[in-house]
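chain below, 116 aa
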Amino acid sequence: MPVIHTYASTPIPADKRDALKATWGKAISTVPGKSEQWLMCIFDENVAMYHAGTDDAPVAYVTVDVFSRGVVSPSVWQAMTPVICEALERELGIDPARIYVKYGECSNFGWNGMNF
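prediction:
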């Protein structure tokens, strides 16, 4: 049950959202056992955010959460960060130096009225 939640201080037009969703779908497959088939993507645009004390340039914060019991190698997350940063720079013009990415694994995940 992967979820990628993208917060951006800029608008995210539908075509850019679709491009990011496609990139997130490919990127999540680098996590063992995960695929776009189960991926939920959430996009929050025009979020008031400050980075380094200013809001004078676009900012993004991305969380990547997966159902797992602590077995995802840090190298998987390391490989995803440049993909996420490059996509946000390409699609939304956000400087990678103003992007944070947080990764998390959760051993309790619910879906379809039950928990895994």
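The chain has one domain: 3-115. The chain is about 30% helix and 25% strand.
thats it, cya
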